[in-house]
Amino acid sequence: MESSRWRDPASPPTGEMQIRRIVLWIGICSVSAAPSLGLTLQDPGEFPLAALILGILTFASIAGLLTSLPAVRRLTAHQRLRRSVVVAYVIRTIFAALPVAPVFLDMWVGLIALGTGSILTDPLGHGHSEAPSNLMKFINTYLMVLWQGVLLNVLVWLLVPLAWMFQRLFMRAPIDGSSGACPNCGYDLRSTIPGCPCPECGEIRLAVCVDCGEDLSTGTPLTTCPSCGSVRPPVDPRWRSWVDRISRARLALVVVCCMLWGALMAITNTGLLT
Fold first, then answer.
1. What is the CA radius of gyration of the chain?
2. In the chain, what are the domain boundaries?
C-alpha cells in the first residue's frame, strides 16, 4: 500500500497523501466551524447552510493541498516546530469543541470578517438599496466562510511561537529522527544493523529505503537497496507524520467523530444563545 511506504519530505506529494490531509482538514474545520454553523441554523435564510458546507470543503481542500507540498513537509519535519503547530491546532480544536466559549471568539473574528469582507463582496454587485438575492446571499456566505477561516488560522499561528518558546524554556529538545535516532530512547542507531535491537532499550531498528520504500529491516547489513539500488541511508518509517501512519479506517473514524461533535456543538450553541 502506498500510504505504508516512506515518502521523502522533498519528494512530490502522492494522491493518497493529499487526500489524507484534505480529509483531516475536513474534520478540523467541522469542529472549528461549529459556531458559524450555529449561526446558520439560527438564520438559514440569511446564511445558507449549503454555502457554509461548500466553504468548509473548499477551505479544507486548499489547506490539505498546501500542507502536502514538499516545502511545507520539509518545514514540519523539524520536530520542535511540528510539535508547536500541533499544539496550536489542538488548542484551537479543543476550544472550538466546547459549548458557548468559542462563540465569543468566533463572533469577534466574524465581525472583523464582515467588516473587511466587504472588499470581496461589494464588487460582485451587492446593492445597498435593495435586498440581496438568494444567489448573492450564497456567494456572500461562501466568501465569508473562507475569509473567516483565514483569519482564524492567523490567530492559531500566533500560538505557534508561544508553544515554541515554552518548549525551549521548559522541555527537552525532541528526538531528531533524521539523525537515525531510536524513536523510543533517542540512541544513535546509525551503526546498528536494521532489524536488530537498539543496544540501549531493545527496540527493534526499523528501516526502509528513502527512495522506494523497500523494507530493509532484514537483520543483515546492506549498503544498497536491493529494489532500486539506492545508496542513501535508510530511514525509520515511525518518524512519518501521524496523518500518513494512521490507517484509513481510523482516520475516517476520527473525521466522522469531529463532524458529529461539531454538529452537536452547533445545535447546543444555538439552543443556549436563543
1. 23
2. 2-175+242-273, 181-235
